[in-house]
Task: inverse folding
């Protein structure tokens, strides 16, 4: 795992090891917080084909905002498992193919994604009962 810090002081992590697992120790380093239950926001860069995020809820039970930085690869939101307290999810330019798995975020209020235009119709049709704000970046 490689850590970097941008000019704003926000730390982000890139997981490059194919065997990497998102452990509590790595999360403590990333968030600069010893008590992970105090973490409410996380910015991260990860390839979900090589790093498992489905147990993120165990380590960060009070996570409210999750932002995936580039480069990140998440083909489906199912890879994130269940995040009951998550309200804001940023998943722009992450290779997202669909938003199957949003039921794992029962308190989600804002979802920022990038999909093709034809996918928007599908999303609205399937998830019409979920209140989600879409910020879609079209080229």
Result:
């Amino acid at each position: 795992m490689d850590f970097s810090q941008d000019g704003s002081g926000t730390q982000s992590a890139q997981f490059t090891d194919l065997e990497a697992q998102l452990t509590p120790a790595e999360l403590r380093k990333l968030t600069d917080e010893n008590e992970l239950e105090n973490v409410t926001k996380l910015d991260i860069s990860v390839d979900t084909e090589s790093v498992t995020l489905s147990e993120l809820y165990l380590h960060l039970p009070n996570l409210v905002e999750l932002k995936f930085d580039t480069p990140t690869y998440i083909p489906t939101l199912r890879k994130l498992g269940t995040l009951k307290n998550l309200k804001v999810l940023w998943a722009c330019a992450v290779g997202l193919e669909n938003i199957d798995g949003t039921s794992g975020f029962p308190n989600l209020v804002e979802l920022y994604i990038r999909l093709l235009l034809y996918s928007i119709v599908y999303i609205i049709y399937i998830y019409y009962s979920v209140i989600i704000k879409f910020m879609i970046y079209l080229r």
